[in-house]
Structures are given as C-alpha cells and as structure tokens.
C-alpha cells in the first residue's frame, strides 16, 4: 500500500494554513509530523482522514484494491469519541461492530494497553491517561492499515508511552502505516519526518 501526498494546501477560516506539503508513506513506514502550535499538524491529519477538503494538491491511495482511503484508516484525534456512560469494554464492543474487520477482542485490546482491570468501569470514571489508552485500544479491535494519530502520547505516563511505542512498531512490522503528530519524541525506528511550517512544509529526513 502507498499513500502519496502531492503539494497539499489547506485553507481554514478564510486563510491559508499551509501549502506545498508532499510526502509518501509505504507499508511498514511511520511519518512523524512536527511543527509549532497552530502550524497545521492536526489539520493535515484531518485532511488525510477525509474530514476536510484540500484547497490544492492531491492525496493518492494505492494498493488496497477496492477499499478507499477512509475505509483503510483509523483516526484518533484530540477528541476521543468515547461514550462516557458506557464501560471501556462496551465502547470497544461498539467500535468493533461499527468498524468491521475484527482483529483483537475488546478484552485482548484492553489487556494490550494495560487496562484489563478497568474493562467494566464507565469511561467517564477513568483518568485522562486511562481514557486515552481506551481510545488507543480501539486501534486494535478492528484491522485498518493506516493509523492517523494526533499527539498519541498526550496524557500518557512513561510506561504507557513505551506500551504505545511497541504497539506502533508491531503494527508496522505487520505492514501497517502510521502518521502521527507530536511535540515529543515517539522513539520509533527510522521514521520519516515532516515539519509543517506556515505556508510550506519541509521534509527533514526521509529514509531511503
Ligand atoms: N475549525 C476551524 N476553523 C478555522 N480555523 C481553524 C479551525 N480549526 C483550526 N483552525 C486554525 O488552523 C490552524 C492550524 O490548527 P491545527 O490545530 O491544525 O494546528 P496544530 O499544528 O495541530 O497545533 P497544536 O500543536 O497546537 O495542536 C490554527 O491557526 C487554527 O487556529
């Protein structure tokens, strides 16, 4: 599978946020997106997720047969889209039924993020970091090759950040792809990196 982004531009609120964003992402690769506050990192993920329309440029998704880009991705944004009144397990049951392509069971996914003990608690009772881990567990209950993650380490302690790093590397090892915004290192193996700057984006380092 291959995601190609060519000369992408985005306008929001009547002004140009960025332009000239180009990169490719292949199976097994990770892209780390950096930039100052307000540069447009989340906006770039929203464009890739199909939540916004580009003002220019192209997003090309190849190698997934009939499946469109939106059918092939998980998006975890700042808003976790969890239902507070439902338990962690119920939230994951819902995601699994809704998304199709089942992968791990909800119990296995909660175990993988270290939250087996919280399966029966309403998500509204969980801490910010625990809640974020439930949102990340959603990645595991339905198979989608491309993970779009907006500041995935936010609210995570050091142990949970390491768990996340392992989940991301496992996903890549199985041919998955990741694009993640971040203000802090994710410690991934040889990621591609792109820095979003006002009205332009520069490839900092690209792995051959
Ligand atoms: N719904 C919206 N309408 C208009 N402008 C918006 C909207 N959402 C975001 N913006 C603007 O788009 C720009 C980019 O925002 P974005 O959230 O993508 O930045 P970011 O790089 O992710 O920032 P941060 O590091 O603070 O999370 C900002 O100037 C922001 O004010």
Please give a quick description of this structure:
With about 210 residues, the protein is of the alpha/beta class. The protein has helices at about 40-50, 90-100, 105-110, 130-140, 160-175, and strands at about 1-10, 15-25, 30-35, 55-60, 75, 145-150, 175-180, 190-195, 200-205.
Write up what this structure looks like.
The two termini are 17 Å apart. It contains 5 helices and 9 strands. It has a single domain (2-205), classed as 3-Layer(aba) Sandwich (Rossmann fold), CATH 3.40.50.300. The strands form 2 sheets. The chain has a 6-stranded mixed beta sheet with strand order 5-6-7-3-8-9, sandwiched between helices. Strands 2-1-4 form a 3-stranded antiparallel beta sheet, covered by helices on one side. By secondary structure, it is of the alpha/beta class. Helix 2 (88-99) packs across helix 3 (106-112) and helix 3 packs across helix 4 (128-141). The model has no long low-confidence stretch (mean pLDDT 94). The structure holds adenosine-5'-triphosphate. Adenosine-5'-triphosphate binds at residues 12-13, 17, 35, 37-43, 181.
What's the arrangement of secondary structure elements?
Elements: E1 2-12, E2 15-26, E3 30-34, H1 41-48, E4 56-62, E5 73-76, H2 88-99, H3 106-112, H4 128-141, E6 146-150, H5 158-173, E7 177-181, E8 192-197, E9 200-205
Parallel strand pairs: 3-7, 3-8, 5-6, 6-7
Antiparallel strand pairs: 1-2, 1-4, 8-9
Bound molecules: adenosine-5'-triphosphate.
Domain ABC transporter: 3-207
GO molecular function: ATP binding; ATP hydrolysis activity; transmembrane transporter activity
Protein name: Cytochrome C biogenesis protein CcmA
